[in-house]
């Protein structure tokens, strides 16, 4: 826990008056006009220490080992009594940085667009054209926001400083505070004749076309970053980044789990019993699948490396084919006769009704998922 007594340089049994005195002394020493930007950081600690130790309830909590200014700490005391930390800070520093005019050109915001892709694109990757609507540098003024032939003018209120100083009264006595100049919004310059095209913003909205490289393995939620393709900033400042968020459309046949694909293959009971070779339409074209004689319902045949490509890595997931053995439902006379004959040969006319424990495969997670398909 932070030692607030040490920060203020007082004893643990210091009186409220001693605490206040110590705080005032440090506040003057750490004022940015005296200590510079470094003082500001230290002052934050000092103000936090004072906020706790100057409040009877909070000091009591703190002495019992609870830091009431820590995030989530302190019960109920809140910032209601006395000075809130933010109040102290703003009274003291005027809430603003006192470091000269802010540049008109600022970095643009990042932009996010969504892109729908299908499973084939996610599996193999590819290039896609994308229309984006973002701010671009104004072609009329080149980004400075001035009507062509005119230029920005130094602000007469702050003389180009971007901020104004004023004397404020506070509980610390009189302090100089610095605030952004209201006349020029802190820029130090004004635009006397704004560009008609962009109203002085230096940028306009425009639709343009981009080529996006979609890597193999992207999934719903994956974001592809296109550096500096976001919107141009105010005053023609550098562009932010563009993020393309992927949304993968569901495929009619294949269900994706990670980089593996799953599908169901209905197989007649005779083929499952006798075994066979079948041709499947996969994302990689026709592929042979080998069913061994005696293939069971729910059995999974794995085609290695025919799943989705791993994102930013070599290799691909697998294609898992879940075998769904189909029992015939309508038999003609001849078929019925044949099956009866088979049952007789196998001595299965009156099967023994032996119950067996449910075997784990039947209830496996994936079977459940595919049961509804
Ligand atoms: Zn313009
Ligand atoms: Zn100004």
From TrEMBL:
InterPro entries: DnaJ (IPR012724), DnaJ_C (IPR002939), DnaJ_domain (IPR001623), DnaJ_domain_CS (IPR018253), HSP40/DnaJ_pept-bd (IPR008971), HSP_DnaJ_Cys-rich_dom (IPR001305), HSP_DnaJ_Cys-rich_dom_sf (IPR036410), J_dom_sf (IPR036869). Coiled coil: none annotated. CXXCXGXG motif repeats lie at residues 138-145, 155-162, 181-188, 195-202. Binds 2 Zn(2+) ions per monomer. Zn(2+) 2 binds at residues 155, 158, 181, 184. Residues 125-207 form the CR-type domain. A zinc finger (CR-type) spans 125-207. PROSITE patterns: DNAJ_1, DNAJ_2, ZF_CR. SMART domains: DnaJ. It is found in: Cytoplasm. Zn(2+) 1 binds at residues 138, 141, 195, 198. Participates actively in the response to hyperosmotic and heat shock by preventing the aggregation of stress-denatured proteins and by disaggregating proteins, also in an autonomous, DnaK-independent fashion. Unfolded proteins bind initially to DnaJ; upon interaction with the DnaJ-bound protein, DnaK hydrolyzes its bound ATP, resulting in the formation of a stable complex. GrpE releases ADP from DnaK; ATP binding to DnaK triggers the release of the substrate protein, thus completing the reaction cycle. Homodimer. Belongs to the DnaJ family. This is Chaperone protein DnaJ. The gene is dnaJ.
